[in-house]
Amino acid sequence: MWRNPFKRREADYHRWTERDLALENAPWTPLSDLDDDDFGRDAVPPRGYDRSRYRSGWRSFLPERARGRGKLWWGSRIFAAILMVFIVLVAWLAITAPLSKSLEPIAPPQITLLAADGTPIARNGAVVEEPVEIAKLPAHVTQPFLAIEDRRFYSHWGVDPRGVARAAFTGVGGGSTITQQLAKFTFLTPEQTLTRKAREALIALWLESWLTKDEILERYLSNAYFGDNMYGLRAASLHYFYRHPENLRPEQAAMLAGLLQAPSRLAPTRNPDLAAKRFALVKGAMVAAGYITQDEAKRMPVPKLDVRTRNDLPTGTYFADWALPTARDQSEMTYSRQTITTTLDSELQAAANRVIQRAPLGSAQVALVAMRTNGEVVAMVGGKDYKTSPFNRVTQARRQPGSTFKLFVYLAALRNGWSPDDTISNRPFTEGSYRPSNASGKYSDTITLRDAFAQSSNVAAVRLLNEVGSKAVIETARELGVTSKLPEGDPSMALGTSTMSLLELTAAYAGVAANSFPIEPHAYAEGQQGWFDWLLDGRGNLGSADQREIEDMLRSAINSGTGRAATLSIANYGKTGTTQDNRDALFVGYAGEGENRLVVGVWVGNDDNSPLGNISGGGLPARIWRDFMRAALGASAAPPRPTPSPDPSGPVQPQDVPELQDIPLGDGRRLIINEDEAILSTEIEGVPLELRVRDGEFMMDLDEAAAERELQRRIDEEMGR
């Protein structure tokens, strides 16, 4: 229906504005096309006009009775709501934050490591000394900490917005005050959430209201983490400079103040260059704070360390010593007592220890590491006796890998089109400055790659490296995770003359076993990888043909080559390694299927790098590898044997007699009694020999390579005469 909506009764006209009256003579307009702007603010809308229907703006969402409220009314209600939320939030934080605990003495942190089955394997406490007193510390000791960590410490109330803004703008100092840092590392978990930051601020305000500034600073300096398992300024100053904090020189105090940002990474014993850069930054902060002049800062030298052996708290195992620094980094050094589960398999670790203890090592040292194909380390033995020598020869020693390095040479050749059945010259070198020889003294016109790998021909490996190029070999090693220095253009690299750790070498073999590389060894289970992570992880893999051929060659090295002493009853893959003058003897390989597949590396050598005599990679290391694999993989890895039927009428077998395991017989001979065999270990004219009796069967293990060398030595002596 069309009508003029402005034809209203005369009594309403006085409420219309001048603009509204001008609309009286406007043309007829449909009511549905009108809105509030067509009426004056005080005008009465025509009958049939629904103001709420056509109202625009935020008020249209409010109830009818609230649409006419003013700004003051709305402002007071919003402020009251915000205040109520704030009160509830503070109350909740006060209940969940350890306010009362923050005033109690701080307990030293402690980390307990567990094996995968929950067995405690190590417990490590902190190195903590007596707390410091601010009144007894020289000003030049406290000033660096205030300058770099909290310049307005004595003027704020625990939270410093100005300090946060300055840190964000200049990049110097932290956003948290010293009081907040004390609350964080002593009373809160390391979670990175807004809730924790809110609790941190609340505890800081609580500490400021109950403690003096000097008391807060004393607590902070007495309990902060300074790296190398040192907690508190006194422990740190004694550890790094062998001085009590009251006697620290200005440059020493400045160095210690710089460690607090990232103690594990900036510790001068580990990263002196990073510590020196941080030291320079602390000096700049002291100049900006007015504690020293620019000239004084220039004259302040980088302090020299004076680290001495003190009452350290060793964990007691090689694996725990390797795993603990990672546990500290993951926990961000909080003061809570933590229990962390590792990947160590307690049964496999026990098996590794038994095998090592029974091995006829003499004065030589030994190392063994076992890992899954995903890099989870399940057993680690870094030496014969941890108490005598805690030096970890799995992770810390860098030795030549010998012929185990040939894996990368032959794999590079396969990836460049070579086949295991292709032949290469096996004649001795007669020209050039570098003339390697075969350890066996045997040569031939040609040899297949398979046989050259199995027999560990040195001349064939060097020629193969020259054919494919050292660059391709280095590239293959890098893809498999080798990070050690590898000199390009050096033909001796084919024989493993570049040093690396046993852990690094074994991880490379794990990459072949998994056909996914590089493999990073780790002591803690990793989370399940999502599909997006899988797309971006950058891992490589071998083609199916290359994988099949390299495993064929690794099997030939055990079944018919230098690693025959490592033979198992199941499919096994590995390579021997012996360095010049028998200074290092290694065996690295893998066996098992699926999740049970183990990759194991074994090294035998002397810490002073002296020759081992007649020990080679195909001898004692291969036998250690075999014995561990049999214990780790169970009956499937041991050779088959008849199962005796029990005789009820036979003699009673005592069950509570202590088991005899290892009996020294003198002159280097040992009688080793296991559950299923007896072993007599001895040497005959320098050649290691093991005589085994199992289920009435007699077996003999002879180090054939050592016997060949001994025979060759005698022939040479006879010819020399």
UniProtKB/TrEMBL annotation:
Pathway recorded for this protein: Cell wall biogenesis; peptidoglycan biosynthesis
Stretches assigned to the Penicillin-binding protein transpeptidase domain: 367-629
Record's keyword annotation contains Nucleus: no
Region Disordered, annotated ranges: 635-665
Pro residues: compositionally biased ranges: 639-651
Reaction catalysis annotation: [GlcNAc-(1->4)-Mur2Ac(oyl-L-Ala-gamma-D-Glu-L-Lys-D-Ala-D-Ala)](n)-di-trans,octa-cis-undecaprenyl diphosphate + beta-D-GlcNAc-(1->4)-Mur2Ac(oyl-L-Ala-gamma-D-Glu-L-Lys-D-Ala-D-Ala)-di-trans,octa-cis-undecaprenyl diphosphate = [GlcNAc-(1->4)-Mur2Ac(oyl-L-Ala-gamma-D-Glu-L-Lys-D-Ala-D-Ala)](n+1)-di-trans,octa-cis-undecaprenyl diphosphate + di-trans,octa-cis-undecaprenyl diphosphate + H(+)
GO MF annotation: an example: penicillin binding
Domain (Glycosyl transferase family) ranges: 122-286
UniProt cross-references to Pfam families, sorted A to Z: Transgly, Transpeptidase
One GO location term (cellular component): outer membrane-bounded periplasmic space
GO annotation, biological process: peptidoglycan biosynthetic process; proteolysis
Enzyme's top EC category: transferase
Keyword list, A-Z: Carboxypeptidase, Glycosyltransferase, Hydrolase, Membrane, Multifunctional enzyme, Protease, Transferase, Transmembrane, Transmembrane helix
KW Chloroplast (keyword) present: no
Similarity-based family: In the C-terminal section; belongs to the transpeptidase family.
Alphabetical list of PANTHER family matching this protein: BINDING PROTEIN TRANSPEPTIDASE, PUTATIVE-RELATED, PEPTIDOGLYCAN GLYCOSYLTRANSFERASE
Protein name from the UniProt record: peptidoglycan glycosyltransferase
Originating organism: Aurantiacibacter rhizosphaerae
